[in-house]
UniProtKB/TrEMBL annotation:
This is 3-methyl-2-oxobutanoate hydroxymethyltransferase. Belongs to the PanB family. InterPro entries: Pantoate_hydroxy_MeTrfase (IPR003700), Pyrv/PenolPyrv_kinase-like_dom (IPR015813), Pyrv_kinase-like_dom_sf (IPR040442). The lineage of its organism: Eukaryota, Viridiplantae, Streptophyta, Embryophyta, Tracheophyta. It is an enzyme of class 2 (transferase). One of its GO terms (molecular function) is methyltransferase activity. Its EC number is 2.1.2.11.
């Protein structure tokens, strides 16, 4: 018995030494999943990933901050490649992607789908997810719970909420205290169009202008790292920007903000439908007319399919040699499928001779 135990002990020692010898280069038999924070394939590169520290540094140096909305994986990859600082998964997806007239109908579940898609595509920008209407107004606890889901299930780095009412300022404060970064939003707040009487610019009289600045200050006091100023006159935005110690991101607020944001589809001129042309914001510059190119491409595709010039030989890359075609045709004939056999033989002949299909 002693001899057996001694032999087992030596074997265990040998295996242990071998394991320690290779553990420096290869992780063997680990019970830690490789896709966790403890053993992920690629650690975050602080020189590439935009963080709140990055934004604060840019703000301190007076460098403009860039933000663009993104709602899916392809748009997120485009933002990533262009070096955009912040990718906002906005509730504007309700209008731009889902076709609603306002931002109100979109649900938290729908927003989380958009957030996850963007998180998979944008590796460099700071990721900010909007809190959808109806998901944070009831109480500060509801707001915190929703914000937690946006980070945990949506893969976002921070959230954005529309400020204004004291309850929303309080919600922002509680979310920050829970350990989640918050971007505020003042001026035209689309979720409040019922009260505002539609999509109307704010800050155009003394009382309204003062309210914009006061609300921005309140959001800063609540702990927000930045504030979006939407559809306010440039002097009002300039006043808010000068008094705040955090960056302002303008949209229809003039050139005096710390940075700017536009909707992805708007700045690309992607939406060419007449209805969308009526509601495209006056402040949006179209840096391209992608929509015209899309319409042209789809029309050409339709035409080529209808006249049978596409796909043709050039875009039918998968080949079968003549002997296999012959054997295939014979098998079809054995099955009583003479018509199918003739079709296969005829198609092979056209591909071989380059005849018009």
């Amino acid at each position: 018995m002693a001899a057996i135990l001694n032999r087992l002990s030596k074997s265990y020692t040998t295996v242990t030494k071998h394991t320690f010898k290779i553990s420096g280069s290869v992780r063997c038999m680990s019970n830690v999943p490789e896709n966790t924070v403890y053993g992920g394939p690629k650690p975050q590169n602080p020189d590439q990933r935009v963080t709140l520290t990055t934004l604060r540094t840019k703000h301190r140096k007076g460098e403009a901050i860039t933000m663009v909305t993104a709602y899916d994986y392809p748009s997120a990859v485009h933002l990533d490649s262009a070096g955009i600082d912040i990718a906002l998964v906005g509730d504007s997806a309700s209008m731009v992607v889902h076709g609603h007239d306002t931002t109100l109908p979109i649900t938290l579940e729908e927003m989380l789908v958009h957030c996850r898609a963007v998180a998979r595509g944008a590796k460099r920008p700071l990721l900010v997810g909007d809190l959808a209407f109806g998901t944070y107004e009831s109480s500060s606890q509801q707001a915190v719970d929703t914000a937690v889901r946006v980070l945990k299930e949506g893969g976002m780095d921070a959230i954005k909420l529309e400020g204004g009412a004291p309850s929303r300022i309080s919600a922002a404060k509680h979310i920050v205290e829970s350990g989640i970064a918050v971007m505020g939003h003042v001026g035209l707040t689309p979720q409040a169009i019922s009260v505002l009487g539609g999509f109307r610019p704010q800050g155009r009289n003394v009382l309204s202008a003062v309210k914009v600045v006061e609300t921005a200050l309140a959001l800063q006091e609540a702990g927000c790292f930045s504030v979006v100023l939407e559809c306010v006159p440039a002097p009002v935005a300039a006043a808010a920007t000068s008094v705040l110690q955090i960056p302002t991101i303008g949209i229809g607020a003039g050139p005096f903000c710390s940075g700017q944001v536009l909707v992805y589809h708007d700045l690309l001129g992607m939406m060419q439908h007449p209805h969308h042309a009526k509601v495209t914001p006056k402040f949006c510059k179209q840096f391209a007319q992608i929509g015209e190119g899309i319409n042209k491409a789809l029309s050409e595709y339709k035409q080529e399919v209808e006249n049978r010039s596409f796909p043709g030989v050039a875009y039918s890359p998968y080949k079968i040699n003549p002997a296999e075609v012959e054997g295939f045709s014979k098998e079809l004939q054995k099955m009583g499928l003479d018509k199918a056999a003739a079709a296969a033989a005829e198609a092979a002949d056209k591909f071989e001779t380059g005849k018009k299909i």
